[in-house]
Design goal:
Blueprint: H1 6-27, H2 38-45, E1 48-49, E2 57-63, E3 67-75, E4 84-93, E5 102-108, E6 114-117, H3 123-127, E7 138-146, E8 155-164, E9 167-168, E10 171-173, E11 182-188, E12 207-211, H4 226-229, E13 240-241, E14 252-258, E15 262-270, E16 290-296, E17 304-309, E18 315-320, E19 339-345, E20 356-364, E21 383-394, E22 397-402, E23 418-423, H5 451-466, H6 468-481
Parallel strand pairs: 12-23
Antiparallel strand pairs: 1-7, 2-3, 2-10, 3-4, 4-7, 5-6, 5-8, 8-9, 8-11, 13-22, 14-15, 15-20, 16-17, 16-21, 17-18, 19-20, 21-22, 21-23
Helix pairs in contact: 1-2
Length: about 500
């Protein structure tokens, strides 16, 4: 006679009961239903216990007296660049959370920069998130994290916590950073790579000339003003696959202008199915169709900005002190005060075939005067780092394209942002002499121009000296470059990564 493991029977029954109750609540319209296969239910049961564990490294961190972090197990004891670390977080559920709560894990270097965002890593996080946990349960939350190959710190510090939209669970007991991230532990990272070690063969990032607008464009979503079409605003090459830089869909381009008051941006997106149900400012636009702009005035991944516009003209904006810091979505209280207009070629959220949409936006320079280093309005010769993205919701999921491919599964990669060169065809030609430090990013904070800026500035001098010829050349370049890869980038061929 085969004996049944009493724990497996109880755990399986309990998980099935949870799923049944969740389904009934979903049918009543209270929460969304989570559809799990029988294999997933069995997998969940293997991570849920009703007896207290004995972690290798005990902790006592309380999140609003609802969830306790009892400790963690790690293997191995040190973590080398490019290698994996297995972590098992041990949680006790004292009181159930509301639907929508998720876990986050941040890996921070010695400089305090968030280098790795591992919110979704781990089986339990995807199929049985904290919003479904039940009082009395002990949860084993297993993660496999890989330390970036270019890691340059002597140790890594791991922060963990819970988020739901812009909210985090408060930490009422235990070590934390003051922003409701629990400081779980630090681990040695020996044999780290040199901080400035170049990556052989790494594709170059693209550059875009941002011309000064003689007159402000009308923000109507059409991009048909003379300043958009007279050569002052060259168009980017077609956006590419975010993982490998190959040609990809949807086909999208961007262009930019500036004047004393605003930064202007235009997107042109070809999309045969326009999807965006969001109606409120700062909704999670990136979950459906959206055009996105990242701006890094310092060029160092410090105090950078993220702005999004949906096909409905709804906006989202936020600011980050450093890469994904603070998480999960930065300083969402920052307001760009941007004015936007969108023209769609089709109707959003219907069953008919569409053609795409055009975005036109004006962002006042005054809105950027915050954070550290606080950027100032650029002058001719200034270089900012930036990237453009387009998110596209499809029946089978979501796809994305980028101006400069980050080549990892994260859009927040400032060192892969392209370069914006601010220019003015009517500005006096600069005199010969050393390149001032103020030419790159925030003048008071950047001690010297980057190599990318040094390579770009001679071209700026030529543009300004030639005057009218510059406009003709830009028009020709924009036609030639529209569907061509940027210099130094490798295009693998017609096959695209999914």
């Amino acid at each position: 006679m085969t004996r049944r493991d009493p724990w497996n029977a109880v755990a399986t029954f309990h998980v099935n009961l949870i799923l049944t109750l969740s389904a009934l609540v979903a049918l009543s319209g209270c929460v969304e239903k989570s559809e799990l296969t029988q294999a997933q239910r069995t997998q969940v049961a293997s991570y849920v216990r009703h007896e207290a564990p004995t972690p290798q490294h005990p902790l006592d961190i309380s999140f609003e007296d609802k969830i306790l972090l009892l400790g963690y197990d790690i293997e191995p004891a040190t973590w080398r660049p490019g290698e994996s670390l297995r972590i098992t977080w041990h949680w006790k559920v004292e009181r159930a959370l509301e639907q929508g709560w998720q876990l986050f894990t941040h890996v921070v270097d010695n400089a305090g920069q968030n280098r790795l965002n591992a919110d979704a890593d781990g089986a339990i996080r995807g199929i049985y998130p904290p919003g479904q946990w039940r009082a009395g349960e002990y949860i084993e939350d297993v993660q496999e994290l890989t330390l970036p190959a270019d890691w340059s710190s002597s140790q890594a510090t791991l922060y963990i916590g819970f988020w739901n939209g812009p909210h985090r669970l408060r930490i009422v007991r235990g070590p934390n950073d003051g922003d409701n991230r629990a400081r779980a532990f630090s681990i040695e990272t020996p044999a780290a790579a040199p901080a400035a070690a170049p990556q052989p063969g790494r594709p170059a990032v693209p550059s875009l000339s941002v011309g000064r607008a003689a007159t402000p464009p009308t923000i109507d979503g059409r991009l048909d003003d003379a300043v958009w079409t007279d050569g002052s605003a060259p168009t980017t090459a077609a956006f590419v696959n975010t993982m490998n830089g190959s040609r990809a869909e949807p086909v999208a381009h961007a262009r930019m202008l500036w004047d004393d008051d605003n930064l202007y941006v235009g997107f042109e997106v070809n999309d045969d199915s326009l999807k965006s149900s969001f109606r409120e400012h700062d909704d999670h636009l990136w979950e459906q169709d959206a055009a996105e702009l990242f701006l890094d005035p310092s060029g160092r991944g410090l105090n950078y900005f993220e702005l999004q516009v949906s096909p409905r003209g709804v906006t989202f904006d936020t600011r980050y002190d450093s890469r994904r810091n603070p998480g999960p979505i930065g300083h969402a209280d920052w307001e760009s005060q941007m004015r936007v207009a969108v023209v769609t070629r089709g109707a959003v959220d219907d069953d008919q075939a569409d053609e795409g949409y055009t975005v036109e936006a004006a962002i006042p320079w005054a809105s950027f005067a915050t954070g550290s280093p606080a950027p100032s309005r650029p002058t001719p010769g200034t270089v900012w780092r930036a990237n453009f993205y387009v998110m596209d919701a499809r029946e089978g999921g979501q796809r994305a394209v980028a101006w400069s491919a980050p080549r990892v599964g994260d859009f927040h990669v400032p060192d892969r942002f392209g370069r914006l060169l601010f220019s003015d065809a009517n500005a006096p030609a600069p005199t010969a002499g050393p390149v001032p430090a103020a030419a790159i990013g925030a003048p008071s904070m950047t001690p010297a121009p980057s190599m990318g800026a040094i390579q770009i500035l001679p071209r700026l001098l030529e543009q300004q000296l030639r005057g009218r010829q510059r406009r003709v050349r830009q028009q020709l370049d924009s036609v030639t470059m529209r569907d061509q890869p940027q210099a130094g980038e490798t295009v693998p061929g017609p096959d695209m990564a999914p």
